[in-house]
Amino acid sequence: MLHEKLSPVYDNVLRRNPGETEFHQAVREVLESIGPALGKHPEYAESKIIERICEPERQVIFRVPWEDDRGEVHINRGFRVEFNSALGPYKGGLRFHPSVYLGIVKFLGFEQIFKNSLTGLPIGGGKGGSDFDPKGRSQREIMRFCQSFMTELYRHIGEHTDVPAGDIGVGGREVGYLFGQYKRITNRYESGVITGKGLSFGGAQVRTEATGYGCAFFVDEMLKARGTSFDGKRVVVSGSGNVAIYTIEKIQQLGGTVVACSDSSGYVVDDQGIDLALLKQVKEVERLRVDVYAKRRGGAASFVPGRSVWEVPCEVAMPSATQNEITGRDAELLVRGGCIAVGEGANMPTMPEGVRIFQEAGVAFGPGKAANAGGVATSALEMQQNASRDSWTFEFSERRLAEIMRDIHGRCLATADEYGMPGNYVAGANIDGFKRVADAMLALGLI
Ligand code: NDP
After folding, report:
1. Domain Glutamate/phenylalanine/leucine/valine/L-tryptophan dehydrogenase C-terminal spans what residues (predicted)?
2. What distance lies between CA 193 and its chain's CA centroid?
3. For ligand 1, is residue 238 a contact (CB within 6 Å)?
4. What is the tens place of the pLDDT at every residue in 249-294?
5. Which residues are catalytic?
6. Gyration radius of the chain over CA positions
7. Domains in the chain, ordered, with CATH?
């Protein structure tokens, strides 16, 4: 239910952004949570803070022409949505996936505002990407695409303006090509212009691992708050990309057993626990599909094509692939199968009906904004190291990440308590993230 002051705001968002269903969903989820904050702080409504937050500060859409290995020309569309800079330079990743359109980039950019605010670090919210499909493309094609993408993007970004990073389809390799082109065009070694860089050219320790590790730390805190831990728990992780792999790694270190993971072709079940070295070899090194993992693992694992990984019973579910991957039916299955905690490594992976089912069943539910904030937090630490021309050790960086995740967890719980919704991490994350941005916007005047 929406607060009476928020219904017209939401209607206006629907009217002004037709067809952008993921963006509508992300806005609605935040507006449903922040009603109580408006009651306590009438100044937010008086200054039209919510209306302002729902409208990006700037949206850039551009043509990305590139040539494949056979000499054929392709045209893709590039996006950068600079959503909110009240707390710092716009910060958020780039996604390369054929499903990308303005509505996806805006949903991700909107979520990013509150996530970045929750980290307590000086970063605003933005997001970008392209409908380019990297699957099946050669290394040189990927390089040419990244160079063409940056040839337009460079004029909109900068270490004090807008700092992109990776997301789906954009990992260390792509960030390298993007940074290389930025450096070439501008003639500046501006390390802080993009994060997720390789360690040899300004990257930070633990950035590769940060989103997955951070999500495992967050769920560990949720479990501790309920008097339990990962030790001996059966866990399912969806996806097998950057976030999934490092979620699995940290859960294994914390004593959990990850029995299944997936990609868009299907899922693998491995009851003895995923063999992480083999998974990394198949997905990170050879860039193959998960069925290859099952084949190489012999009889220990099986591949189930074209089905949802959420049919595998588990005590902890870590959706780490993409948006809207857990339906209401999946949530029911998970609850029936004994699931007690969900940590969203992906952005908005649980559909609203699923969130309701988890919360009504008393499942500890950690929304992406809070649970996967470790990635962007470590990106902000990368910017900090770039600015001071310093580099921290792996151990120190991981300790900082763990502290940040503990702090976010604590603030979500404390805010949920303060507003009379104990244990509701969705409300806690939305209200806490919103308030910091709203207060900065009030203080900055009509921006
Ligand atoms: P990757 O590209 O490394 O991996 C994505 C994984 O999800 C792959 O296994 C991919 O399978 C699967 N996947 C993607 N789209 C779909 C789809 N439509 N249906 C089924 N499976 C799909 O991306 P990341 O690991 O970086 O990102 C995963 C999620 O985490 C995203 O929601 C992203 O926004 C979020 N996130 C990422 C952060 C980061 O630091 N990278 C930070 C915070 C959130 P396939 O290869 O078959 O497509």
Report:
1. 204-445
2. 19
3. no
4. 999 999 999 999 999 999 999 999 999 999 999 999 999 999 999 9
5. 127
6. 21
7. 7-53 (no CATH), 58-189 (3.40.50.10860), 210-371 (3.40.50.720)
DSSP state letters, 83-150: EE-SSSSEE--EEE-TT--HHHHHHHHHHHHHHHHHTTSS--EEEEEES---TT--HHHHHHHHHHHH
User: What is the Cα–Cα distance from 36 to 320, expressed in whole angstroms?
Assistant: 30
What is d(CA 88, CA 140) in angstroms, rounded to the nearest whole number? Answer: 35
* CA-nearest residue, atom 42 of ligand 1: 375
Cα(168) to centroid of ligand 1, in Å? 4
Pocket test for ligand 1, best of 242, 267, 292, 381 (most atoms within 8 A of CB): 242
pLDDT tens figures, 404-447: 999 999 999 999 999 999 999 999 999 999 999 999 999 999 87
347 lines ligand 1 (CB under 6 A): yes
Atom of ligand 1 nearest to the CA of 210: 40
Token pair of 447, please? 């921006």
pLDDT digits (tens, 9 = 90+) for 72-129: 999 999 999 999 999 999 999 999 999 999 999 999 999 999 999 999 999 999 999 9
